[in-house]
C-alpha cells in the first residue's frame, strides 16, 4: 500500500505517524546546530515548507516527550548524525503568527492576546513549581489576558523563557513561524506603526541579550528593515533565497521530485512537472515548488495549484502607484523576457514602499526568481515556470475582483460582439481599481497595464498582446481570438486632455485606421475585426468603435 500524500499537513509528527510520504529534510537540523548564529531568520515564499521544518525542529529539540519523539526520527538523516545527541535536550516555545489579520490595530491586538493565552496554556504544568509572585505573573496571561495592555504583552515571551529555564535548568529554543505575517497585514490595512512598535519589543525582549535563550529561529517571507527587531543583535543571520546556505532546506530539488514521482509510478511525467513547477533559484540550487508538486501527485493533472493570495493586495497597490518603467518591465516579464533590477534583502515598509520595491516583494514572495546575479545588489529576474506565468495572467482579476463572473461576462460579450457590455466590463475594471490609482498621472500606460493585466485572464479564449507592432505602428492592445470564427479586437487607449472626450475617442479610433493596426489580425485569418478607441477621465471611460 502506497504512503499517503501529505497535502496541507504541516505537523512533522502527524506525517510520520500516519505513514505519509516524507521527504527527508532533517539535515536542516544538523545545519542549524553547526551554524553558531544564536538567532536565525529564514525568508522563503509561502508553502515552501517553512512550517513543516519548524515543526520538525520542535519535535527534535523538545525536552517534553523526548523518548517518544526520538522514534519519529528513526531511519532519517539526523539519526546517524553526531548532532542526534541534541535531541530532546531543550524546552521549546513554538509560536505561529499566522492568522493575525485584523482590520485595525485593536482587532489584531485582540488576536495576539488569544495567541499568547493559548501559548501559556501549553505550559500550565509549570505552575506547581512557581513561587507565589511567579504564579501571579504566569496566570495573568491566561486568566486576565483580556485586561492586559501592551506593556504586559510585550514582555510575555521573555517571561515564559525565564520560567521554562528555571523549571528545566536548561536554556530555551524559541521558534517563531511567519513572524512577518501580521506586520505585512498591518501595512496593507494602515496601522503598520503600532504593529511594528509592538513586535519590536515582543520579539526583541525574547531574542536580544536574553540569558535564557539557547537559540531563536524565525521564518517569514521578507525581512522588515525598520521593525528594529534584529538591529541590536550581534549574533543574528538572515538567510534569504539569495544565500547559498540552507538552499536545499526549503522546497524540493530535482532528485527529490523524481524519487517521489517514481514512488507513485508517474515518473514519466517528469518533463511536464519540471516545466510547470521548477525554475526557482535558491542560492545556486534549482528548486521545485513543493506544494504544487504534491498537488500534482494527488490529482495527476498540471495546473496552477499555488495561489499566493497574501501578496496580491500589496503588489497591486504598489503596481498601480508605479511609473512607466515598472509597467514596461512587467510587460517584458509576462512576455517571457528577463528584467534587470536592484534588490535589497531588507524591505523598508515604513517609508511607504517605492515602486521599485515591487520587484523585491515579488522575488521573495515567489512570483519571480533570479536568473543571474550581476553583483551584490543587481540581478536579472524572470518568471520561474508555467504555473507562475498563469498566475500572472490572473493577478489583476484576483486582486480587483473577488468573483470570476467578470471574466465570464466579458468573454460572452466579446464572442457575441456585445460592444456596450465589453465597454462596461472594462469600465468596471477601472472603477474597481481606481482606489489604488493616482489619477494625477499624465500618461495612459497605467490604464493599459491595468486593462492588459485583466485581459490576460482571457487566455483560454483570446491571446492578449500589448504594444504589438502591426501595420505602421504599435497597437496598445490586440485581442486575437483562438477560434478564428470569433471577432478580434483592437484597442487604442488615450487619457483625456481636453473637455471634448468624445472627439478624443474618435481620434483614437482614427489612429487605429490610419496606422492599419488590423494588419496582424488579418494575417492570423481573423475575418471580423472590431476597433475600439477608449479615452479615460478618472473613473469615466469614453468610447467609440467601428468594424
Query: What is the residue-mean pLDDT, rounded to a whole number?
Result: 88
What would the principal axes of the Cα set say about the shape?
elongated
The number of helical runs is 22
Sheet with most strands:
5 strands, parallel
Helix content: 40-55%
Describe this structure in words.
The chain is α/β, with parallel strands linked by helices and 547 residues long. Helices cover 42% and strands 17% of the residues. It has 22 helices and 17 strands. The protein has helices spanning 12-17, 27-34, 50-61, 66-70, 105-121, 132-143, 150-154, 156-168, 181-189, 192-207, 254-263, 270-277, 290-299, 312-320, 324-334, 357-365, 386-400, 405-415, 419-433, 445-455, 501-514, 519-523; strands at residues 39-43, 92-96, 172-177, 213-220, 223-224, 236-239, 280-282, 285-287, 339-342, 346-347, 369-373, 378-382, 462-470, 473-481, 488-495, 529-537, 540-546. A five-stranded parallel beta sheet has the order 2-3-4-1-6. A hairpin with a 6-residue loop joins β14 (473-481) and β15. The longest helix has 17 residues, at 105-121. It is elongated and about 85 Å long.
Amino acid at each position: 500500500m502506497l504512503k499517503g500524500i501529505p497535502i496541507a499537513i504541516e505537523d512533522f509528527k502527524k506525517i510520520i505517524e500516519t505513514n505519509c510520504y516524507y521527504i527527508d529534510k532533517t539535515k536542516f537540523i544538523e545545519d542549524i546546530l553547526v551554524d553558531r548564529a544564536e538567532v536565525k531568520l529564514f525568508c522563503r515564499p509561502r508553502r515552501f515548507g517553512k512550517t513543516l521544518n519548524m515543526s520538525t525542529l520542535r519535535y527534535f529539540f523538545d525536552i517534553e516527550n523526548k523518548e517518544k519523539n526520538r522514534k519519529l526520527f528513526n531511519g532519517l538523516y539526523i539519526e546517524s548524525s553526531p548532532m542526534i545527541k541534541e535531541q530532546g535536550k531543550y524546552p521549546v516555545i513554538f509560536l505561529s503568527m499566522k492568522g493575525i489579520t485584523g482590520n485595525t490595530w485593536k482587532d489584531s491586538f485582540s488576536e495576539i492576546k488569544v495567541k499568547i493565552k493559548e501559548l501559556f496554556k501549553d505550559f500550565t504544568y509549570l505552575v506547581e513549581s512557581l513561587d507565589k509572585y511567579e504564579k501571579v505573573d504566569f496566570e495573568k496571561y491566561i486568566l486576565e489576558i483580556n485586561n492586559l495592555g501592551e506593556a504586559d504583552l510585550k514582555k510575555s515571551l521573555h517571561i515564559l523563557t525565564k520560567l521554562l529555564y528555571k523549571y528545566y535548568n536548561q536554556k530555551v529554543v524559541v521558534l517563531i513561524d511567519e513572524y512577518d505575517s501580521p506586520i505585512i497585514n498591518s501595512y496593507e490595512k494602515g496601522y503598520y506603526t503600532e504593529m511594528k512598535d509592538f513586535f519590536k519589543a515582543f520579539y526583541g525582549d525574547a531574542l536580544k541579550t536574553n540569558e535564557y535563550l539557547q537559540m531563536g529561529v524565525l521564518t517569514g517571507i521578507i525581512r522588515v528593515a525598520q521593525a528594529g527587531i534584529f538591529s541590536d543583535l550581534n549574533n543574528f543571520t538572515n538567510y534569504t533565497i539569495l544565500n547559498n546556505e540552507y538552499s536545499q532546506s526549503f522546497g524540493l530539488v530535482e532528485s527529490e521530485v523524481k524519487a517521489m514521482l517514481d514512488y507513485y509510478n508517474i515518473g514519466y511525467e517528469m518533463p511536464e512537472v519540471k516545466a510547470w513547477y521548477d525554475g526557482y533559484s535558491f542560492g545556486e540550487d534549482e528548486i521545485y515548488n513543493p506544494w504544487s508538486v504534491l498537488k500534482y501527485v494527488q490529482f495527476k493533472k498540471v495546473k496552477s495549484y499555488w495561489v499566493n493570495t497574501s501578496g496580491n493586495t500589496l503588489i497591486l497597490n504598489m503596481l498601480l502607484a508605479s511609473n512607466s518603467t515598472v509597467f514596461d518591465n512587467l510587460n517584458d516579464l509576462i512576455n517571457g523576457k528577463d528584467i534587470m533590477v536592484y534588490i535589497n534583502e531588507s524591505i523598508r515598509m515604513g517609508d511607504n514602499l517605492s515602486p521599485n520595491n515591487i520587484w523585491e516583494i515579488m522575488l521573495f514572495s515567489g512570483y519571480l526568481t533570479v536568473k543571474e546575479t550581476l553583483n551584490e545588489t543587481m540581478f536579472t529576474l524572470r518568471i520561474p515556470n508555467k504555473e507562475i506565468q498563469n498566475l500572472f495572467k490572473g493577478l489583476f482579476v484576483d486582486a480587483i475582483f473577488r468573483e470570476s463572473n467578470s471574466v465570464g461576462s466579458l468573454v460572452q460579450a466579446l464572442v457575441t460582439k456585445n460592444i456596450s457590455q465589453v465597454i462596461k466590463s472594462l469600465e468596471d475594471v477601472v472603477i474597481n481599481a481606481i482606489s489604488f490609482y493616482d489619477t494625477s498621472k499624465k500618461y495612459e500606460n497605467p490604464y493599459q497595464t491595468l486593462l492588459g493585466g485583466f485581459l490576460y485572464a482571457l487566455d483560454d479564449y483570446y491571446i492578449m498582446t500589448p504594444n504589438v507592432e502591426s501595420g505602421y505602428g504599435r497597437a496598445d492592445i490586440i485581442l486575437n481570438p483562438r477560434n478564428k470564427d470569433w471577432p478580434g479586437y483592437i484597442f487604442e487607449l488615450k487619457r483625456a486632455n481636453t473637455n471634448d472626450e468624445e472627439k478624443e475617442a474618435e481620434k483614437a479610433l482614427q489612429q487605429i485606421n490610419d496606422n492599419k493596426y488590423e494588419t496582424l489580425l488579418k494575417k492570423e485569418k481573423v475575418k471580423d475585426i472590431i476597433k475600439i478607441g477608449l479615452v479615460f477621465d478618472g473613473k469615466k471611460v469614453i468610447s467609440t468603435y467601428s468594424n
